[in-house]
Write a structure and sequence with these properties.
This protein is an all-alpha fold. It is 77% helix and 0% strand.
């Protein structure tokens, strides 16, 4: 799980660099980076830390990931097969 969070970091960093002056996409980069960071902390604690803390961080992880998803859908819309 920890290795899969690298994609969050790369995607967030790309959006932060590429869309520095376009606020909506820059904010999307912030949300994706934050989701990756929280997920990394959660999975690290899950693997090495206490059960009670991991259980609490699970809710934080899901909340941030779901918020990032909602912001993505608001910014980019639903994915479709059509490419324009």
């Amino acid at each position: 799980f920890l290795g899969s969070n690298i994609s969050y970091m790369f995607s967030g960093a790309y959006l932060l660099r590429r869309f520095r002056f376009r606020k909506r996409f820059f904010r999307l980069g912030v949300w994706i980076s934050l989701a990756g960071l929280v997920s990394t902390v959660f999975h690290s604690v899950q693997a090495l830390g206490s059960y009670a803390l991991a259980q609490s961080l699970c809710y934080v992880d899901h909340a941030v990931a779901f918020s990032a998803l909602l912001y993505f859908l608001d910014t980019c819309g639903f994915p479709s097969k059509r490419v324009s």
